[in-house]
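<amino_acid_chain>
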Amino acid sequence: MEDILKQVQDGTLSVEKAKEKLAGYEDLGFAKVDHNRKKRQGFPEIIYGEGKSPEQITSIIEAIKAKDNDVLATRISSEKAEAILKLHPELIHYDVAEILSWKQTAPVNESDGYIAVVCAGTSDLKIAEEAAVTAELLGRKVRRFYDVGVAGIHRLLDNAEEIQNATVSVVVAGMEGALPSVVGGLVAHPVIAVPTSVGYGANFHGLSALLTMLNSCASGISVVNIDNGFGGAYNAVLIDQLANKA
């Protein structure tokens, strides 16, 4: 702020430009892009793509890139991505995760810690990949353990040691949502449980899995919203950063 005011005083910065810089966000009319979020929280503003048009998403991306911030947009369908990539072919679209990204430089993570993303079944892959790709794009190491649900628990136990060595686990499950409780009983680190909307009628679009996870008797489990792979990953990233001081 002091530097900006000195530039105005010296006549090297106009009052209008100074107001823009001090505001901390850019008003696009339909969105206010928070350019100072990285300074406050460590990561730039992340775009939630659902409900936004390709044109709106493109405008937000251009505003973020103009400030030399990295781009991470979630819930970007293949159709939306195709329209956006025509204008910005430098972006990368992760089809299963439905994530669109652009980074100035690849993140360097020299710590030994990693996040375990544990997925109950193949039907949960979309949410698990949203979590895994988000964590990787935010600079953390990830190891994936997929299709290890409780219906064949030996598959989980075969990977137990590697999961136990993680800093934090993101556990994704639909149906009755039992997997986080099992993982929580095996590990000595935080577990972020992510319920999915996968399941038959009485699953109530993920509500049964959510309630199971909230009522888990295993200690150390925190629960995010239904299908919120991004939210689970973001929390895991913060934990991994603190644990590895990076």
Summary: The radius of gyration is 20 Å. The first strand starts at residue 25 and ends at 27. The mean pLDDT is 89. The chain is about 40% helix and 15% strand.
